[in-house]
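1st attempt posting a full record on here, be nice pls
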Amino acid sequence: MTAIVEMQGLRKVYRRRRRDDVVAVEGLDLELGRAGTVHGFLGPNGSGKTTTIRCALGLIRPSAGGVRVFGVDSATAFHQVAPRVGAIVESPKMFPNFSGRRNLTLLAELGGLDRRAVDRVLEVVGLVGRDEDNFGTYSLGMRQRLAIAGALLKDPDLLILDEPANGLDPAGIAEMRVLIRGIAEQGKAVVVSSHQLAEIEQICDDVTIISGGRLISTGALAEIRSFAGQDRVVVTIDHRDRAIAALAEAGLAAHPRPLEHELSVDIEPTRSADVTRALADRGLYLSGLRFEQASLERAFLNLTGGSMPPPPSTAAPVGGPPPPPPNWAPPPVDAPADSTLPAGPGRGEA
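the predicted structure (as C-alpha cells):
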C-alpha cells in the first residue's frame, strides 16, 4: 500500500540571533500514512515531531530535502492537495461564545462546503446533543473532538493530529482512542503525533520513533515492539541478591531492577509458580509478583539506550547540511520560526 507522505533528507534549522541555531529535524527519510491505518509518530517533547508536521503541511519551509504529500512538494504546491488533508496542529482555536455547531458552520462556509457536512462530522465525533452549547463551556476532551470534527469537514483522505490526547483525563483519552480508531476504520489514513507511547500503542498499526530530530526506528507495531525483548515477571522481595542467586540455582535468569527490592525474571507468566517455588525452597518469600508485558515504551527505551533522548541539537553538523536528494528542489529561504497556520479549512485545524 502506497504511503501518502514521503520525506527525503528532510532537515529544518531555526536561525536565531545572538544564539546558536537550532537543528530541529536532521535528515529524515520516512514514509507514513496509509489508507485505513493509524500511524504513530512518536518521540519525547522537543524531538522534532511538530516541526516535521509543519513541513509536511507547507507551514514552514525545510532547510534541505523535502516532503511530498499525495505526490506533490508540500513546500511549493501543498494547495493542490489541501482539500484531501485535514490537520490539527497544537491547540485547537474556536470562537468561545459560538456554539460548537456554529463554529463548524463557519468553517464549512469558509471552505465552500455543504452544511450537511456539519451534521455528518458531529455524528462522527459524538457531539450530537451538545452541538448547540457554547464552545467556551466544553471540556478539553469535547474541544479536541470538535477540532477533529472541523478537520473532517472536507472528508479528507489524510488526517494529521498533533498530540490529540494532550491534557486529557483518562476518560477523555479513552474516548479519543475510540474516535481515532473509528476514523481509520472508515478508510482514512491517520497520522498521530504523540509522546504518550502507552496510549498510542493501543491504536496504531505502524510506528515511527524520532529523537533529537533524527529517525530512530520505523515499521509495523509488532516489529517495533520486538525491540522490547521478552515478557517478564517482576518480583518484590527483601533479600534481592540472595533471591537472584537462588533463582540462578534453579535455572532462572533474574536481574535487579531500579527499585531496591525489585528484580525481574525472564520467564513466561504461565511459569510464575516456578519462581515462587524456587524461592520458597530456599526460605525466601516474596511480597509481590506481577507480569510485565513487552511494550512500546520499553522498546523505545531500548532503542534510545535506556533513557529519554536529548533535545534537538544546537550545533550544525561537521561539513554543513547534507545535500538535497535527487529530483528534490530545496526551498529558497527558511520561513520564520514562528510561522503559523492560516485560518480556514484545508490548512490548520480544519
